[in-house]
Amino acid sequence: MFERFTKSARGVVKGAVVQAQQAGADSVTEEHMLLALLGQDGTRSSVALTSLGVAGQREAVARSLADVRRLGGMSKADQEALAGIGIDVTEIVSKVEETHGQGALQSGRGARRGLRTGHRPFTPQAKAVLEKSLRVALGRGDRQIGDEHLLLALTVQPGAVADVLTEYGATYGAVEQALSGGSGGSGAAGTG
């Protein structure tokens, strides 16, 4: 599948690994992929993210992702559903952190096996994004997988990243519209 990735898409994947390394994470997540996308310039996804006003919000997006991690990866929809039956997730997290320390519910706190070898595996969710990017590209009639396909896949992969993107107005439909209006078509740009 990676032979179908454009240079910019490969840059996102490599950038995600760098993001994971910088964060001291034991694996590469879809969060790292989003942060890598937000760090790119001159790509189809960066044009779309800029037109949606997300590109300039990298630090705010990173904080939103950290807030979700603090809550054990619980989405806004999960929090709202629990609130509907009288459970205040923020209060529970605060009590757990009082007892076990700040960040006690954060995911990715396992054995740091990748830190010694330098290899960080992709989480199943991150792998699913890569697979979805292929389906998105095929669905759009594109022969290669570009960074824009990775962004579109992130918007539809259930979880924290899609929730955060939605908070910033970057839904699948909005990104697709920004891509078609941003640089004229779905196959040409970002294939370097």
Verbal overview:
- This protein has one domain (2-182): Double Clp-N motif (Orthogonal Bundle).
- It is 61% helix and 0% strand.
- The chain has helices at 7-23, 30-38, 44-51, 58-70, 76-84, 89-100, 113-117, 124-139, 147-156, 160-167, 172-182.
- The longest helix has 17 residues, at 7-23.
- The chain is globular and about 50 Å long.
- Residues 108-116 and 182-192 have low confidence and may be disordered.
SSE topology:
Elements: H1 7-23, H2 30-38, H3 44-51, H4 58-70, H5 76-84, H6 89-100, H7 113-117, H8 124-139, H9 147-156, H10 160-167, H11 172-182
Helix pairs in contact: 1-2, 1-9, 2-9, 3-9, 3-11, 4-10, 8-9, 9-11
Q: List the uncertain runs.
A: 108-116, 182-192
Net shape: globular
* Assembly type: single chain
- By DSSP, the count of extended strands is 0
Going by helix content, strand content and strand pairing, the class is mainly alpha
Query: Beta-strand level of the residues, as a percent range?
Result: under 5%
Q: Profile the largest sheet.
A: none
Portion in helices:
55-70%
One letter per element, helices H and strands E, the order comes to HHHHHHHHHHH
CA-CA gap between termini: 17 Å
- Helix count from the secondary structure assignment: 11
Mean pLDDT: 84
CATH superfamily, called what? Clp, N-terminal domain
In the CATH hierarchy, what is the class? Mainly Alpha
| Structural domain tally | 1
Radius of gyration: 17 Å
| CATH fold topology | Double Clp-N motif
Query: What would you say the CATH architecture is?
Result: Orthogonal Bundle
Pfam families: Clp_N
InterPro entries: Clp_N_dom_sf, Clp_R_N
Domain Clp R: 2-185
Protein name: Peptidase
